[in-house]
Amino acid sequence: MIEFEDVPELVDPVVIAAFEGWNDAGEAASGVVDHLMDVWQARVIGAVDPDDFYDYQVNRPVIGCDENGYRSITWPGTQIAVASPPGLDHDIVLIRGLEPNMRWRQYCAELLAACDELGASMMVTLGALLADAPHTRPVPVTGTASEPELVDRLSLEESSYEGPTGIVGVFQDACSRFDMPTVGYWAAVPHYVAQPPCPKATLALVGCLEELLEASIPLGELPDEARAWERGVDELASEEEEIADYVRALEEARDTADLPEASGEAIAKEFERYLKRRGTDQA
């Protein structure tokens, strides 16, 4: 049972969840929650008891010094935070955790019970996977939703994936059994630059959240970090002829495919997000 401290009265909260580990290529998904925690000044109100779900020989605690110079231990775990972003009709609940080592069903049940206690109206899960995607093109993001209205509004589709899953897939299944409306987004991180971070993929997921929430999210330094990341990969690829050839092959395959990024609808949505952000910046 997750215990909360100083919980404010929340307005129709939307939950955004990401988990480190197998579901988090390039730390792109957990990077979104980290970014939102910062720009929305979120406040941690509770945490999952790590003793029930983590093997400390697999995910070891970390010892270090705090801001006052005192040595302390940070345990692997999952935190729950709340935020009240300006311009949104909803409050936000942020879940950021490490994929547990055991008792996944109990773990999901505790998180869902906590979300229910907070009055959550929707669950948004974020993930990232390694894929044959060129780093020089827009990051592909696939999405699914449990409600027909969300499927139509966001132009999503039912997932056809069959195979092993991580805690994100198990958590989404638990949400559906709990009748919690759920949206899931997955970013495709180039497999040849799997080392985190991947700010370009994080930025792509933030864009999807803007469309879902119908609001602008402060981007901070993410665009600059994404451009710097792409330039860095360009330099690394140029040093190896075989890698450069491989990237060009991926680019050709991507450019000749029938991509949603090239559709008029996608361009219109991106322009709409630009206008919203411009209006917010000028306010």
End-to-end Cα distance? 43 Å
The main β sheet shows up as:
7 strands, mixed
Poorly predicted ranges: none
Q: Number of DSSP strands? A: 9
Protein structure class: alpha/beta
Helical run tally: 8
Q: Tell me, what's the shape?
A: globular
Write down the Rg. 19 Å
Beta-strand content bin: 15-25%
Mean pLDDT: 89
Secondary-structure element string: EHEEEEEHEEHHEHHHH
Give the fraction of residues assigned to helices: 25-40%
- Strands of the widest sheet, in order across it, are 2-5-6-1-7-9-8
Describe this structure in words.
It contains eight helices and nine strands. With 283 residues, it is an alpha/beta fold. The chain has a seven-stranded mixed beta sheet, with helices on both faces. Strands 3-4 form a two-stranded antiparallel ribbon. Strand 5 and strand 6 (92-98) form a beta hairpin. This is Filament polymerization regulator ParJ. InterPro entries: Proteasome_assmbl_chaperone_2, PSMG2_sf, Rv2714-like. It comes from Nocardioides dubius.
